[in-house]
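Practice problem: predict the structure.
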Amino acid sequence: MSKNKKTKDKKKSSQVEIIKGRLDISRSGMGYVIVDGVEKDIMVRPNDFNRAFHGDIVRVQVNKGLSKDRRVEGKIVDVAERKQTEFIGNIQQSKSFAFFIPASEKPIPDFYIADDKLNGAKDNERVIVKLLSWGKDEKKPVGEVVSILKSEDENDAAMKEILVEAGFPLEFDKEVLQEAKKLQPEISREELRKRKDCRDILTFTIDPVDAKDFDDAISIRNLDNGNYEIGVHIADVSHFVKSGTLLDKTAYERATSVYLPDRVNPMLPEKISNELCSLRPHEDKYTFSAIFQISNRAEIKHSWIGRTVIHSNHRFTYEEVQEIIEKKEGLHFKPILLLNELAQKFRKDRFRNGAINFSSQEVRFQLDEKGKPIGIVIKESKDAHKLIEEFMLLANRTIAAYISKIKINKEPIPFPYRIHDTPDDEKLKPFVAFARKFGYVFDMHDEAAVASSFNKLLKDVQGKPEQHVLEQLGIRTMAKAIYTSENIGHYGLGFEHYCHFTSPIRRYPDVMAHRILQECLDKNLKPDKKMEEKCKHCSDRERKAMEAERAGNKYKQVEFMKNYLGQEFDGIISGVASFGFFVETVEHKCEGMVTARDLSAYDDFRLDEADYALVGMRTNHKFRMGDRVRIKVMAANLTKRQLDYEWVPVKKAGTGNLELGKKDKPVLKHKSKPAKKKK
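Answer:
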């Protein structure tokens, strides 16, 4: 090669840059790579996608030094991470092979399906297909049918679609299941020598009635010095799932279990989650534990962290423990009452030290054998739930505090902390102004004062008409908790150090925490340079799981409310937008939309953001968040997971006028006009 040619190539390579980001494909087919910290997206034309799908993490090549006024264009050089590997669509069959046509709003190429990969699927059937490969020598993606969606089982198909759309595989690969199958449950003598033996201490689990994966247990005994020894024992998933194995890779990719109304899509195969690592009663199990010496005043006198072996004596449900707490009798009632008393003291101390007391209701559906909703149950957090919550919080913050003190070359070790930032001023200020309208004043001079003001408001608002709106808006001012190696503490809990350690069966960050913790205890640290990238991945997967869970609940709401078309209910306005307002029914907690278009028969309504309200331009009538309204169920669209409500005006007693508000002029009158005189 000539010297001139080498110089040109070197100059050319110095003018290009490879940037990592997420590909967003618009409906028109044009692509945009979104890069963290970069304001303008990088435009990518369809011919330059290089086998990338919508949502994939890609590396894109761009030219350096382009004008700031011009949109930067790039070409995708490779796919770093697939957003999803399973897709929903229909089979188009020929004699010896078939094509899979994805059903997606985003442009996705057809897949080639070999005859032996159809797995019984017929022409035009709706299926789920797994991407097997799409190499440089393959013109189309190559796939395999993994599931046929039967039209008679609409619910099953809908739940599977939700999981696939969120990028969660429906099944584990055969190789992963084989790896799990080889794992042995026996407690070996060699392993036992490395662990603290806690099998002779009273130990039990407390979980939901339908739980199968018991990943935490509590032990308790009296000590001669007058203190109590209380152990928080967590399933030792990292003993079975070794770093770098297929099981580990699969768990990391999923990063979390997903809980839909009628099923769990687990992070780990059932062999691990429901057998090897589930702390079932009357079985010896490997655990990772935080064991505390605690005084009767709830003072932590000493803590020990390490690997253990336990033997659970009993499996309690939350309902059983709640009954023991209330009646003060039953199996192991004395230790349960003691644990509850200590938990209550921990809880008071937390709120005294700056934790914010947001309470929430959990809405669950009662389902028939086919998964159809036949009722709704509203679950509230009771003392039994708070007992477990407080001891899990204690273990989590103890682990994080221990890790935070360890340094390598005077630098903190990379670790998946669970952090929660302080409220954003842009969200907080309008909320504070809105709360002031109801007479609640916030002290804004520092973060602790804001937390104290929140707690005072949440206490004072109980039972008042504005309770719902102020609680909901207060939650929305809060930042989202995430995983990161940059430890800034957890504002909502009031902890300087916090992590997730107590649910490794269903959360991958807990598995990472266990591994790093053991390295610290062994004084054999191997700092992970990719920790922040892994934390971001886990936060992203958690967000997707939450979106899938919301979509699953929304589907059930729509399915349930289909039984009530044309019926009227009381509701609370749960959100406002320029295009209408959302209403949650009081009786069922099912949310639907009343559109501004439908309201236009009464007035022209505009959004007042500062007052969280839609305001009539002529009547000044307000539909404000938190207001109680009457609605009629007009439509229930399962495909769109959407409920349409119609506002029902309330008639004033003794008049034909429609009541829009006490101070408002009536918009519609039902009095007939006087007849014109005949000429």
